[in-house]
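Worked example 3 (structure in, sequence out).
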């Protein structure tokens, strides 16, 4: 980031603008979520004005032509223009509230061309959603190469100091477009690099392994995970019979399933999520030397997760939590960042490393055996200006490669290379989807492909074929010296045509056991709870018992604890337990991380220490975090001095939105603190504070959030059953406890509050 405290810088900029005539170009007071670049007036505007510009945090696709030529046009040239409502043909419209009728009560006339066009377009606004990864969010950014990969690849975007525009989409796998963000699921992490040599798509996940080893099984795993076809339930979850029936029979899915049942399945934020290319790729350098690699995205903020109860609550109170978190952070100037890294392996004939088959997408190579080497920095710095045009219409493809990066013989990757193009034909209406603005390459295009649905390029010439002389022989073939993509001429094994897999693919339990043994006791408890919850939602006893048999082959304690929760006997292992070395890099706990964009709730009311609220709010902004003031009612606090805007009320606040809470005094009860108005206020009355404040405090404590307070806050804590000496509970004189609060927050949670039985 260019600023030390970008959130504070944005807040200061806004404050300056509010005291002058400059338009607001960011989140007011450091708090994101303002829907338009300027605040509306009370009455409907009637004086014609041109369309407002986008907010400062928004951007659109680069203005290149359908054939990749820079146009130099402002992005506004791609948007609507003019102060007056028109038809799609540019004809100005004087009324769009009434159909053309034969008299005020007469029949609608067929000649109403505006009605016909408006309804026709509305009826066709939706396109088919993605079969998988339908629920997603995305942002624009830039990738800056360190140049450290130049020894292993000639890819131009990985040269030293090269900067490449990118568009990154995060997603869930199983749910529909309208499903919740915080479900337990794998997340997609797809990056489109608009390189000078063409588009490179790194289409990965937040889990480094896949359910299957061969793409021919992909329809099976997705059909098993999707809602049951007879009832179309349950939505966006794997806690049902068909999923567990499949994965308990198809044990190559065990490793991925275990990751999904861990905290990795419920990330705190897209900004705090790792990404993996999953497959092994082949790099080739300028000398033609090849290296096998795995790609990793490492978040600068660390890898953090929700606890399961938080995820469930958020699915109800804010199903858009992850996309809101991403968009708000960018709007605040807390730009999310990841380092791209690679694990490198010799390109040997057997394509094995330390006994691990590099073509098996259900296996990882532990970082202790092959360290991840940083090769560049990704920064997301702009939100989309139109969700449909960019996030919905972006089309990724594992086969979009550039010189220096090639595929391997991974059978899952081969099938994905075949599948992605078919998907776009249905979703985006034909073969010209690369010409949509968000998909356009920034490199020149001369492909000789013509016509088709939604053709927007106006091709010239008369000879779209090779060889030709009528167009002067153009386009010409390029050699390696001219930057052509040339597949690495690797030797292909000869043999019989078979539907088989290598013997190395048959080991389904050693790496799941390594993952289990690498978890801390708290993380193991979460895995046990996840398996117990998911299997308890299944109807068929045989599915539960069969899955317990799979868990027994990972670890007897895991199996036994889940069996207790299901009320079933724990079976014995059917395969010998493998002696494996844990990989500490797989655990999320035990380190500290930056706090950019973390959300702090400041709970108070009008009658308390408003000056103290201002002080702690300023300290939160100075630390690069986002303060949200919570009070009994909306409006502003402080009749004297600079007013403090209230962002949440006791009725709307929920602990899951905050990373930590600060209580400035003991807030009194709100005027709406009764059950008929707000059921959350229907708890037993407390003489200390509003019951919703006590619920907020109790919930945050249970979820391991850091807590601070002063001005009698110890009485509030005690009323909630919390002792001042408990881990992560700070009582200070004024805002002096902020450094201690931030130190606690850097570990993500107060983990001491989660005692483990093991």
């Amino acid at each position: 980031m260019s600023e030390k405290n970008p959130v504070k810088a944005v807040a200061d900029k806004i404050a300056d603008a509010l005291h002058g005539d400059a338009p607001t170009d960011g989140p007011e007071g450091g708090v994101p979520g303002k829907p338009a670049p300027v605040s509306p007036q009370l009455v409907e505007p009637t004086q014609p004005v041109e369309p407002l510009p986008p907010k400062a945090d928004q951007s659109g696709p680069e203005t290149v032509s359908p054939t990749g030529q820079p146009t130099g046009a402002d992005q506004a040239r791609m948007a609507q223009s003019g102060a007056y409502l028109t038809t799609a043909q540019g004809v100005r419209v004087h009324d769009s509230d009434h159909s053309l009728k034969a008299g005020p009560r007469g029949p609608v006339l067929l000649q109403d061309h505006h009605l016909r066009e408006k309804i026709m377009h509305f009826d066709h606004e939706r396109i088919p959603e993605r079969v998988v990864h339908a629920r997603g969010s995305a942002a624009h950014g830039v990738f800056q190469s360190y140049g450290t990969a130049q020894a292993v690849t000639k890819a131009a975007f990985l040269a030293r100091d090269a900067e490449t525009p990118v568009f990154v989409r995060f997603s869930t796998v199983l749910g529909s477009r309208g499903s919740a963000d915080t479900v337990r699921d794998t997340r997609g992490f797809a990056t489109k690099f608009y390189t000078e040599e063409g588009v490179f798509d790194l289409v990965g996940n937040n889990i480094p392994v896949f359910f299957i080893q061969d793409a021919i099984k992909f329809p099976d795993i997705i059909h098993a995970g999707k809602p049951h076809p007879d009832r179309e339930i349950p939505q966006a979850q794997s806690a049902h019979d068909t999923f567990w029936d499949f994965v308990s029979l198809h044990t190559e899915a065990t490793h991925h399933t275990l990751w999904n049942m861990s905290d990795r399945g419920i990330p705190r934020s897209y900004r705090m999520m790792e990404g993996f290319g999953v497959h092994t790729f082949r790099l080739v350098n300028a000398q033609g030397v090849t290296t096998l690699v795995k790609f990793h995205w490492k978040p600068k903020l660390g890898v953090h997760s929700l606890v399961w109860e938080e995820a469930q609550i958020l699915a109800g109170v804010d199903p858009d939590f992850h996309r809101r978190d991403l968009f708000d952070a960018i709007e605040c100037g807390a730009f999310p960042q990841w380092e791209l890294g690679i694990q490198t392996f010799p390109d040997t004939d057997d394509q094995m490393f330390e006994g691990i088959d590099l073509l098996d997408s259900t296996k990882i190579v532990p970082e202790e055996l092959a360290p991840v080497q940083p090769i560049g920095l990704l920064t997301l710095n702009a939100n989309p200006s139109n969700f449909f045009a960019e996030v919905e219409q972006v089309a990724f493809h594992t086969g979009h490669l550039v010189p220096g990066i090639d595929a391997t013989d991974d059978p899952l990757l081969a099938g994905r290379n075949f599948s992605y193009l078919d998907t776009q034909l249905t979703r985006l209406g034909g073969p010209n989807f690369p010409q949509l603005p968000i998909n356009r390459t920034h490199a020149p295009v001369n492909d000789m492909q013509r016509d088709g649905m939604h053709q927007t390029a106006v091709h010239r010439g008369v000879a779209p074929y090779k060889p030709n002389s009528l167009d002067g022989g153009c386009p010409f073939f390029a050699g390696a010296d001219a930057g052509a993509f040339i597949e690495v001429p690797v030797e292909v094994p000869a043999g019989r045509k078979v539907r088989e897999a290598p013997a190395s693919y048959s080991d389904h339990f050693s790496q799941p056991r390594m993952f289990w043994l690498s978890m801390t006791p708290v993380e193991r408890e979460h895995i046990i709870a996840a398996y117990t919850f998911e299997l308890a939602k299944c109807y068929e006893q045989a599915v539960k018992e069969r899955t317990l048999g799979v868990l027994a082959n990972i670890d007897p304690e895991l199996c036994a604890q889940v069996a207790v929760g299901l009320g079933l006997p724990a079976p014995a292992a059917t395969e010998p337990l493998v002696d494996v070395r844990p990989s500490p890099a797989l655990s999320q706990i035990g380190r500290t991380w930056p706090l950019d964009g973390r959300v702090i709730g400041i709970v108070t009311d009008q009658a308390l220490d408003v000056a103290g609220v201002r002080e702690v709010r300023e300290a939160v902004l100075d630390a690069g975090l986002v303060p949200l003031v919570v009070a009994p009612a909306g409006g502003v606090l402080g009749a004297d001095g600079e007013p403090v805007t209230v962002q949440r009320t006791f009725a709307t606040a929920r602990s899951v939105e905050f990373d930590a809470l600060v209580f400035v005094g003991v807030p009194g009860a709100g005027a709406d603190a009764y059950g008929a108005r707000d059921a959350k206020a229907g708890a037993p009355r407390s003489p200390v504070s509003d019951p919703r404040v006590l619920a907020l405090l109790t919930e945050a404590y249970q979820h391991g959030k850091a807590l601070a307070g002063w001005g009698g806050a110890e009485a509030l804590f005690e009323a909630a059953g919390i002792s001042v000496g408990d881990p992560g509970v700070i009582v200070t004189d004024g805002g002096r406890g902020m450094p201690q609060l931030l130190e606690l927050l850097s570990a993500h949670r107060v983990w001491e509050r989660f005692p483990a039985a093991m």
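Notes: The longest strand covers residues 373-384. Confidence is low (pLDDT under 50) at residues 13-25.
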